[in-house]
Design a protein that fits this description.
Number of helices: 0
Structural class: mainly beta
Number of strands: 11
Radius of gyration: 13 Å
Helix content: under 10%
Low-confidence stretches: none
Mean pLDDT: 95
Strand content: over 45%
C-alpha cells in the first residue's frame, strides 16, 4: 500500500550537514505519520524524529534535538530530515518509516524504506 524510497546519505565531516529525503508512493500520504529511525553497528534501532500527518507536529529524540529538523511536503509525497552540526556518533543507517499511529517506537510503523548510510568522520 505504501512504498518508501530514501536518498541523500553519504560521507560528511563532523560539523557538516546532510539532507535526507524519503518519497512515498501512497495516495494517502498526508494522513500518515512519518518518522526517521537510525541504527548504528552493534546497536539497536533508535528513534530520531517524527512528524504527524494531521497538524505536522514534530518530536525529536534528545540526542538530535536542536540539530535535526524533520519536515514534509504533502504535495510531493516527501518527508525530509535536515541534519546539521553532525557528530561521529550520528553515523548509522537511517530508515524512513510510515504509520497511522506515529510515536517513537519502531513497532508502531508498518512501512519502511530500504535505509541510507550516513557516515560522519572526525
Amino acid at each position: 500500500q505504501v512504498q518508501l524510497v530514501e536518498s541523500g546519505g553519504g560521507l560528511v565531516q563532523a560539523g557538516g550537514s546532510l539532507r535526507l529525503s524519503c518519497v512515498s508512493s501512497g495516495r494517502t500520504f498526508s494522513t500518515y505519520a512519518m518518522a526517521w529511525f537510525r541504527q548504528a553497528p552493534g546497536k539497536e534501532r533508535e528513534f530520531a524524529a517524527v512528524v504527524t500527518g494531521s497538524l505536522s507536529i514534530t518530536n525529536y529524540a534528545n540526542s538530535v534535538k536542536g540539530r535535526f529538523t524533520i519536515s514534509r511536503d504533502n504535495a510531493k509525497n516527501t518527508v525530509y530530515l535536515q541534519m546539521n552540526s553532525l557528530k561521529p556518533e550520528d553515523t548509522a543507517v537511517y530508515y524512513c518509516a510510515a504509520g497511522r499511529e506515529g510515536g517513537s517506537s519502531w513497532e508502531r510503523y508498518a512501512y519502511w524504506g530500504q535505509g541510507t548510510q550516513v557516515t560522519v568522520s572526525s
